[in-house]
Amino acid sequence: MVKERTDDIAVERIDEPGIVSETAGNLFTVALACPSCGGTLCFAEGSTKVVCAHCGASYMVVGKKGELRYWIPDRLTKPKATRLVGDFIEKIRDGRAVHFIDTRLVYVPFFRVKATGGGWYIGKGVGIDYLWREYGNQQSVVIPREVTKNIVEGFFRSISFFVPAVDISELGLIGLWAKSAALELLPMDLDKISDGEVCTPLKATRAASREAWATLVASAKPAGLPLDYFEAEKVSEEISLIYYPVWIVRLLLDGLPRRVVLDGVGGDILNARVGKRRRVAAVPGIITLGVIAFLATTLPVLLVLPAVAALYYIVFNGWDWFWSTLVSFFISPWRGEEEIIG
Amino acid sequence: MIVRCSQCGAKINRKDENRFFSCPYCASALVLEGGRSFACFIMQHERNDLWARALFHERLKQAGVAPDRGKVTVEFTYIPFWVVRRPDGSIAAHPAAETHHRDLSSIKVPPGRLIFYEQDSRPDAPVIALSVPLNLAFDAEKKEDLGHVDLVYLPVYFMESANAGGQCALTVVGDSSRPYWGVMPAPKRYVSARPLAFFGAVAALFVVSGLLIDGVYLRAAAIGAGGLVCAILSHLILGRQRQ
Q1: CB < 8 Å to A17, chain B
Q2: Partners of A115 in beta bridges
Q3: What is the extent of the structural domain holding A253?
Q4: What digits encode the pLDDT tens for the residues A184-209?
Q5: Which of A20, A235, A256, B193 would bridge B40 by S-S if both were Cys, CB 3.0 to 4.6 A apart?
């Protein structure tokens, strides 16, 4: 029944586990065999060299097909990650009860696009022209003046562009990839990742490539120069996926859910939104009461003004709005009291 | 997903999309090649009602509703979504099943591990069956504009409470800490006894001072000094409110 409604995409019985494999019939496997002895070669995706375990021949892995995948090993342990977060919470918990829910290691995928491009542009720019003027008494002076010039420039540049392959807005990992540029990357081998959850990349590889190219082109264009012509060509592009380890610690602080994200390499706290205890801002209320009391005991007729104002708001905005505003004015928490990192 | 080993012909059950693997029977190193129209995944998730209830409790608190966690009902289920990875980099998810729950059309897929949905990966929790085909889910868009499409079963918590002055509901996807959807009664401002007593006493103090002290300047100075003392006292008396 479902098949009839889905046209060309075969989704019949796809909700039944085990049936999905039938839809993937166009997938096939290719054996990685040693060109010399025919023995099985075992190496992880992203490796650049491989030695045959059977005949000892060394090979270099070439080709750009697919995206290379790397991972950065986690350098913390679960107890250490929990302890680091515990120490952080201890500083700000302010007597509140802390209950740890769980501590998980997650490998977050980032695209790294190494793009190289070149091109040229023609534009009109304002330049400085120098005028040399000599006087009869053997003195001379240089006079600078602004002139409009035709500018023709070429460029050739490479960038390493990092973009998260999943939605990391909740985890607050912006800027994390800059660290990975300085770290050793290991070819991805799921067998070696015994602990932790490896997130599946959701973003399309083509989208990462397009964003990288747009960034390269934008960086090549001169700022503030009106261009008559611009041309850029892609010279090379290498896309790889880097899995970065982060620890996610979930806890309850006075019964409220809080999550702390920890760098799995350096142990820094990358993201935490832990509210401090609220303090009551009573000063505005006290000042208001003081002014009203002063008016009431000095010149009671002036009380008509706040009374009229209150009446106006009650009539036009309603009692609920008035009461809510009054309460929030008298008893409101100090702002900026949240401990936010990331 | 079952693929066939090119060396020994054995059927190999693949759990995820990793291209490099070895045959469990003949130990040959293999690479997965070829394309596919789409695959069916399920997001790995460990159910945690404590976290979901805490999110609900927090949202109630933000709405000014007195929480009563004992009466919160938590429904946990896996719902299929058509997940589209568009070439422009955006990711859209649309429910692939009709449910009695509220709007799920603009759900965000949280980070997580997607594994092929097969017999051995079937979760213990209830799974809603696929009932909305792709062309109906993305009615306005042409298929060629959609990009890469997958069917993903996402873990969703539905929480409800009807005890706190109106219907309260919250929907949370997986481990997310941001509720996807929620309905709360209109916030009601209430003043607890301590601030009410404090401000009442301050008002009385000011009025009594104003009535007893003659002279405008002296009265103003007395009320100002009283205000300063009250501001300091407010930190001690009102102190820290529980978050």
Answers
A1: 117-122
A2: A159, A237
A3: 78-275
A4: 788 887 777 778 888 988 888 888 88
A5: A20
